[in-house]
């Protein structure tokens, strides 16, 4: 009787294994794959971030050259590497902003616009979008396209950049001879900045407009 009971138990166990053993093995295997896959992905992302950070540091070193005259070719080369290896990242897009700045310094305004447009096409975050937008408007102003630049400055700026957006609008409006609107934009920027704007360049712009009307 005992032997029969053991045989029955073995049969039950065998039947259970046939029904559940393979799914358990597959499930366990998939769990291991997910765990090790996630670990690999995490390490990969960390390594990639480290490489991107190192490249960006090289870019900063090139831009902030001790001699005070960064090499545009070197900056462009490092920026191109960031764009190629880490497209769409903040590192790559800040690189484009540096390229644009040097292009402006060297009078290559079309190149500056191209670099800024690459950021505006798909900005990594709202800060980069606003920085690129305002710099694009400045470049357009330098190309005597103030009216078009005003059209670019649409939508609401992030709070941290609202004052600089208003001041930029004032500069564009002043260039177009629309002094009353320029004064209003400067006053709006002054209000957004608060007491820290007192005695600064923004105040000088407002005072110049007032003196011009006297």
State the gist of this model:
The protein is mostly helical and 214 residues long. The chain has helices at 2-63, 72-85, 90-105, 109-121, 126-142, 146-152, 162-175, 179-193, 201-213.
Task: Compile the SSE list and pairings.
Elements: H1 2-63, H2 72-85, H3 90-105, H4 109-121, H5 126-142, H6 146-152, H7 162-175, H8 179-193, H9 201-213
Helix pairs in contact: 1-2, 1-3, 2-3, 3-4, 3-5, 4-5, 5-6, 5-7, 6-7, 7-8, 8-9
If you had to describe this structure to a student in words, what would you say it looks like?
The chain is mainly α. Among the domains are: 71-155, Serine Threonine Protein Phosphatase 5, Tetratricopeptide repeat (Alpha Horseshoe); 162-214, no CATH class. Helices cover 80% and strands 0% of the residues. The protein is built from nine helices and no strands. Helix 1 runs antiparallel to helix 2 (72-85). The chain is elongated and about 110 Å long. The relative contact order is 0.05. The mean pLDDT is 82.
The CATH class name of the domain at 71-155 reads Mainly Alpha
Radius of gyration: 30 Å
CATH fold-level assignment of the domain at 71-155: Serine Threonine Protein Phosphatase 5, Tetratricopeptide repeat
Q: Provide the residue-averaged pLDDT.
A: 82
Oligomer status: single chain
User: What is the string of helix and strand elements?
Assistant: HHHHHHHHH
Uncertain regions: pLDDT < 50 for 5+ in a row? none
3D shape: elongated
Q: Estimate percent helicity.
A: over 70%
Question: How can the largest sheet be summarized?
Answer: none
> Which CATH architecture of the domain at 71-155 is right?
Alpha Horseshoe
Number of strands: 0
SS class: mainly alpha
Q: Which range does the strand content fall in?
A: under 5%
Instruction: Report the total helices.
Output: 9
Distance between the termini: 118 Å
């Amino acid at each position: 009787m005992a032997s029969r009971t053991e045989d029955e138990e073995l049969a039950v166990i065998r039947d259970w294994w046939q029904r559940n053993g393979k799914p358990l093995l597959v499930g366990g295997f998939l769990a291991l794959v997910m765990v090790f896959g996630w670990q690999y992905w995490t390490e990969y992302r960390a390594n990639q971030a480290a490489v991107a950070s190192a490249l960006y540091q090289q870019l900063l070193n090139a831009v902030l050259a001790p001699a005070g005259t960064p090499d545009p070719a070197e900056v462009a080369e490092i920026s191109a590497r960031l764009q190629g290896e880490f497209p769409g990242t903040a590192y790559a897009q800040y690189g484009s902003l540096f390229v644009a700045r040097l292009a402006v310094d060297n009078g290559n305004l079309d190149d500056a616009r191209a670099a800024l447009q690459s950021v505006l096409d798909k900005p990594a975050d709202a800060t980069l979008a606003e920085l690129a937008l305002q710099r694009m408007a400045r470049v357009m102003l330098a190309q005597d396209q103030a009216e078009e630049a005003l059209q670019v400055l649409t939508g609401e700026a992030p709070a941290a950049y609202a004052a600089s957006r208003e001041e930029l609008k004032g500069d564009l409006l002043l260039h177009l001879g629309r002094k009353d609107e320029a004064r209003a934009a400067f006053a709006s920027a002054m209000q957004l900045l608060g007491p820290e704007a007192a005695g600064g360049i923004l105040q000088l712009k407002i005072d110049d407009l007032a003196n011009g009307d006297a």
